[in-house]
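ASSEMBLY PREDICTION REQUEST
Request ID: AP-0331
Submitted by: J.K., bench scientist
Number of chains: three
Total residues: 913
Priority: normal
Notes: Please return the full assembly, not individual chains.
Input sequences:
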Amino acid sequence: MRARGRRKTSYAADIAVIHSGRQWLTLAVFIGLLVVLPLVLNATHNLNWVTFLNFTLIIIIAVLGLNVTTGMTGQVSLGHSAFIMLGGYGLAMLTLKADWPFWAALAVSTLVTGLIALIVAIPAIRLKGFYVAVVTLAFFYIAQYVIRNLDITGGTFGLIGIPSPSIAGMSIKGDVRWYYLLLALTILCVLVSVNITRSRLGRSFLAVRDNDVATAALGVNVPLTKLRAFFVGSLFAALAGGLWASYVSVVRLDQFTIWDSIWYLGMIVIGGAGSTAGAIMGVIFLRLISQILHVIGTSDLIPLSSTVTIYSTQIIYGLVIILFITLKPMGMISIWQKFKINYKRWPFGV
Amino acid sequence: MDAATILLQLVLSGILVGGVYGLIGMGFVVTYRSANVFNLAYGQFVMFGAFIAWSFIGSPQEPRLPLPIALFLTLIAVILFGLAVEYLLFRRMIGRPMHATFILTLGIMALLHGAAMLIWGPGVHVLVETVPRGAIHLGSIVLSQEYVWSFFLAVIIALALALMFQRTRLGLAMRAAYDNQVAARCLGVSARMNAQITWAIAAVIATLGGILMGTVHGISTTLGELVMIVLAVVLIGGLDSLIGCVLGGLILAIGMNLSSYYLGPHLPGVEGIFSMALILIVLLVRPSGLMGTRPIERV
Amino acid sequence: MLELKNIKAVYNDIVLALDDVSLTLEQGSVVVLLGSNGSGKSTTLKSISGVLRIEDGELTEGIVELDSHRIDRLNPEQIASLGIRHVLQGRSIFPQLTTEENLLMGAYLRRDRPGTRKDLEQVYEHFPKLAPLHDRKSGYLSGGEQQMLVIGRALMSHPKIMLLDEPSLGLAPNLIGDLFSILKQIKDAEKTSLLIAEQNAAAALAIADYGYVLQSGRIVASGKAESLESYAKVKRAYLGLDKNGAFLSRHDFRQKITDDDTEA
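STATUS: Completed
Returned structure:
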C-alpha cells in the first residue's frame, strides 16, 4: 500500500502555493475551463451570463482588497464601496476631463485612492474594533457628499462615456473581450493576494489581527501595519472601481452604495476571513444567489417585479450572513478543508 | 425676523428634535453596555417598531384599534421581537470577538430592511393623529405642536428609564453587571435574564422613538437611516452614558439646524453629513465622548 | 457540607489546572488552601462557584457536592442562589457604583427591605470605616477599604459558605491581622463556613480548623491547622515559605535558599 500524505521538508515547501504535479494539472484544467466558458455561453446565446461573469470578476478583485484590510488584518471597513467609487471616478475624470490614456489614468487613480485611504486610516488606526467601521462609514458618506456637490464629478448625473482600454492596438469592446481582460487581471490579483499571505507583510497583518498587544511586543509596528493594510486593500478596490467604470462606461453615485460595502464584508465572512480562496468563494456564492433570483424573477415561471427581486436578494444576503456568522464562523473554506481531509483519509475519516 | 430671533428659533426647534434623538440613542447605549453589542441594525429596530405600531394604530383614513390598546399590543409585539433577537442570535455570540457580532448586526440590518421593503413598501405611511398638531407662537418664534409633544414624551420616557437604572433593584443589577460581569454573576445576577431584559428594553425604546419620529415625519423605511444619527448621538455623548445621549442628541440636532440654515445656501444638504463630520472630530479628539465613563483605575 | 471529589480542571481544553483534588468543608468550619502562585487555589474556588466555566475552563472529572447534591453543572448565579458566595481575587468591586450600592448588590437575591437595611447597618458595624464612605464611588476607595467592601458585600446575603480568594493580597501587614480577626468574628456570629485561599499561611492558619496544601494543581499535604502549622515550618524549604510563613514564588525561593546559605 502506498503511503498517504506528503512530507514537507522545508518552510518554503510548506508555504508553497502548489504542492504537487497533480495540483498543477488541476489548476491548468480549471483555467482552461475558464477560458472556454464564454465561448460556450456565447454559442448558447447566454450572453447575460458573460456580463454576470465580468461583474463577478470585478467584485472578486475588489473583495480581495477588503480581504487584506478586514480578513487578514481585522480592520472592519465599511468604506470599501467608497474606495471603489473613488477609483471609478478617478479614472473617469482623468480620461474624460484630462484626456489621459486609459492605463495611465487607471494607475494614477488607483494610487491616489490608496493615498486617500491612508488619510482615512489615520483616525482609524488609533482606535479599535468597530470604531474603525464607524470612521470608514463616515468617510463613505462624506466622499459621496463631496462627489455629489462637485461640478467636475458630474454631480448626481455622474460621468458618461468613459473610454475602454486597448491592448496592442486592439480595443477592448464587447463582453467577451472584457471577460478575457478581467480574467487575466483577476488571476494577477489572486497571485498578488496569495503571495501577500506568504510574505513577511502578510504575517504581520495576521499577527495584528490575532493579537495587537503581543504583536507590538514582538517588534511589529502595529499602527504602520494597519496603515499598510488599508493602503493595499484600497489599491485592489480602486483598480476594481476603474475597471467597473470603464466596463459600463458610466460612473454614477448610485452604483456605489453602503449596502455594497456590507455585502463585501459578508462575502469575506461567508468565504472564511483571511483566506484568498475563501474570499473568492464568498463572492461567487453571493453573486450566484442574486443571479439565480434574477433569472427566476425574469422567467415566465414565477415573474417577480424588479423591486421584489432586489429586496428578496437583500433578505437572503442578510440571512446567509447571519447563518454563517452564527453557525459556521470560519466560513465556506473551513467546510471545504474538512471535506478535503476526510476525502484523503477515506475510509478512515471522521 | 431679526438675527437673534432666527438663532433662538433654530436652537429651540433643535432642542425639541434633539430630545427625541437622545431618547432613541438610549436604546443603542443599553445594548452596548449590557450586551456588548455595537448594534448597527438599531435604525432598523426603530423603523420596524414604528411600522408594527402603525399596523396596530392605523392611518387617518383607516384607523384600526383605539390608541391605548394598539400601544399595548405594539409593546408586547416588540418585546417579543427583542427577546427573539436575543434568543436566536446574540445568545450564540457570547464569547465571540466583537467584530463578529458587529458583522452579525449588519446581516440583521439587511434582513430587516429587505423585509420591511417587501411588507410595507417604500412609501411614507401617515400615523393616526396621536398628538395635537398645529403651530405654537411664542412671540415671533413658531414651533410645531407635534414637535413639542414628542419632545416632552421623550423626556418623560427618558426620565422613567433613568429612574429604572438608578432606583430599582433591576437597574442596579444591570449597572453592576456592566461594571463587573463575573462579580455580578457571583452575587446571583442571571446573565441570561440580563441579556433578555436588555434586548427587550432596546426594542421598546427604539419603537417609542420610532413612533415619536413617525408622528412628526410619517413612517417609512428611511427611518432605518436614523442609525447614522444615532451613531453620532452616542459617540458624541460617550457610548456608555445615558445622560451623554441627551447631550449628544441636543448638540447634534442644534448643530444640524444651524449648519443647515447658515451653511446650507453655500453647501446644499450639508446637515446630512454634519453628523459624519462630528463623528470624525469626536473620534479624533475624544474617543470616549463627552460623558463616556472610562474605567477608574487605581495606581 | 461542601465536598469536592477527585476533581480535575482544565482550561481551554488543554491547560491542566487541577488534578485529583478532593476536599471537604464542614458546616461552620474554616478551611484554608495554601500554596504558591499558580498552585491551583483560585481554580479550586472557581470550580466550586461555577466561575471556572465562564472563564473557558471545565471540570473534566470528579464532582462537587453541596449537602449531597451535585452543583458542578450549575451557573455561577445558580450556585450563588444556593448560599455560596465567592469573593473573587483582587477586590472585584463595581467601581462605578457607590459603596452602598455595592453592598446592596450583595443582597440582590433577597427581597425583604427591612432585613436588608438591618444587614447594611451590621456590615457598617463590622467595617466602621465604610460607613462614612457610603456615598463615594467605590472605585475611589483605598485598597483596604475595597477589600472590606467585597467581604461586606458577600455578608449581605448571610451566605452558608464563603469562598475567599486571597483576602490579604495587597493589604498592609497591620490590616491583615484585622481582616482575619473580623473573618473569625463573622464565622462565630453567623455560623458561616469559610474556605480561604491564601499565600499568607501564618495569618490564615491562625483562624483555620483544617488546611490543605496545593502544589501544581495537586494536594500535597492536609491536616488540622495546628499540625499543618508545624508541618509548614518543617517543610519551609521544600514548600518555599519565608520566615513569616508566606509561600514564595519560585524566583524568591531560589533567592531565599542562597540567602540562607550565606547566613549559615
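REVIEWER COMMENTS: The mean pLDDT of chain C is 84.
SIGN-OFF: pending second reviewer
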